[in-house]
Design a protein that fits this description.
By secondary structure, the protein is an alpha/beta fold. The chain folds into 2 domains: about 160 residues, Rossmann fold (3-Layer(aba) Sandwich); about 180 residues, Dihydrodipicolinate Reductase, domain 2 (2-Layer Sandwich). Helix content is about 35%, strand content about 25%. The protein contains 13 helices and 14 strands. The strands form 2 sheets. It has a 9-stranded mixed sheet with strand order 13-12-11-10-6-9-8-7-14. The chain has a 5-stranded parallel sheet with strand order 2-1-3-4-5, sandwiched between helices. Strand 1, helix 1 and strand 2 form a beta-alpha-beta unit. Helix 1 packs across helix 12 and helix 10 crosses helix 13. The termini are far apart. The model has no long low-confidence stretch (mean pLDDT about 95).
Length: about 375
């Protein structure tokens, strides 16, 4: 069985979504709205040999027309600027079409809650693409933590530094939309990078956030939204921690580091060595769990056909889409299966995190309960 999907969006990330969704031959792109500019819209569609009648000038028409076709799409991918996510997702969910939405899901908690309610009311399985959730060795770190390998944990640090945006800020490049409220929403780096870390930390600890305290910085350059942020964390399971992000950090390129500190040792994972997990034990011993020798189920759940050449974020997308697509196919067959992918509810929790960080900062860095 092969699923059919559409896509709304036409930026560079759109191609990564299409590659991931079609990689395992479980789904095919059949429709889309890729640009408000007719020429750009058609040029994008021509790369994927789409039928002209299924290339739409706006997402409203796409949602309406696709919902009444006999061969309608099974889901739509939404990868547009943040402020448009809500209206686009709502249009398709209202027509009974499942969505896969880039994070952050929306720019307000109220909007995100409405989408979750709408999806549940229509019994639609949906996903939010937290890219790094598809990295197998983060799931190994989670398994090792939950198996009490380092004893009781008491602290977690999560860090995400990038340097690519610094030149854009001073060049006033179009990509600085991430720091522009009218396009990005209420948050900059804390919404872009911080939401990834919020999801990673919840995934690893198997616990929701209880409260947080945030300090956000709108420097350097002249930008509306935060480029840098520090957030103190407290989780429902009693673990404390700190989250740090920087979008204008020279010398860094998707540098993510995670450490879980426990009574008997420390679990460490980094983007630089994304196919391994290191544990330093109290007795001085260090053990590195490294691909391809790891046999743990948490890693092996992602053992499907791998691309010969693919960048790490695309690998994360592939693993997320594979789980999501298998779930939809099983549902069509009347089967119940347990597949990994970040859900719309995860997207809602991410928006609550972002909104709480902004509230904490505005109120002079106070603790906010989630």
């Amino acid at each position: 069985m092969k699923l059919k999907f559409g896509l709304v969006g036409g930026g560079g990330i759109s191609h990564n979504h299409i590659l991931a969704a079609t990689f395992g031959n479980l789904a095919e792109l059949t429709s889309g709205c890729f640009s408000r500019n007719e020429e750009k819209n058609n040029n994008f569609a021509s790369q994927y040999n789409l039928d002209f009648e299924r290339i739409y000038v706006d997402y409203q028409t796409m949602a309406e027309n696709e919902s009444i076709r006999e061969d309608k799409i099974d889901f739509v991918i939404v990868c547009t600027p943040n402020v448009s996510h809500y209206e686009i997702c709502k249009a398709f969910l209202s027509k009974g079409i499942a969505v896969v939405c880039d994070k952050p899901l929306t720019t307000s908690v109220e909007q995100a809650e409405e989408l979750v309610i709408l999806a549940n009311a229509n019994s639609l399985t949906c996903a939010t693409t937290y890219t790094f959730g598809g990295f197998p060795y983060l799931h190994l770190a989670r398994e090792l933590y939950l198996s009490n390998e380092i004893g009781k944990a008491y602290y977690i640090t999560v860090k995400y530094f990038r340097g690519a945006r610094l030149a854009e800020i001073f060049a006033d490049d179009i990509k600085t939309w991430r720091f522009t409220r009218a396009v990005s929403g209420q948050a900059g780096a804390i919404g872009d990078l911080g939401s990834h870390l919020e999801y990673i930390s919840r995934l690893l600890l198997d616990s929701d956030l209880k409260r947080l305290l945030a300090n956000l910085i709108n420097k350097p350059g002249k930008v509306e939204l935060d480029t840098t942020g520090t957030v103190l964390l407290e989780f429902e399971n009693g673990v404390n921690g700190v989250l740090t992000v920087a979008q204008a950090a020279c010398g860094h390129d998707n540098d993510i580091e995670v450490e879980i500190l426990g009574e008997k040792g420390t679990i460490f994972w980094s983007m630089k060595n994304f196919s391994e997990v290191k544990i330093d034990y109290l007795d001085g011993k260090t053990v590195i769990h490294r691909d391809p020798g790891v046999k743990n189920a948490s890693v092996r759940q992602f053992d499907h056909r791998k691309p010969l050449l693919v960048n790490p974020p695309v690998m994360g997308f592939i693993n997320i889409y594979t789980g999501f697509l298998k779930k939809l196919i099983d549902e069509k067959k009347g089967l119940d299966s347990n597949q990994y992918f970040p859900t719309l509810e995860d997207g809602l929790k991410g928006v609550k995190f972002i909104e709480s960080c902004v509230e904490s900062h505005i109120k002079s860095n106070i603790w906010i309960n989630l």
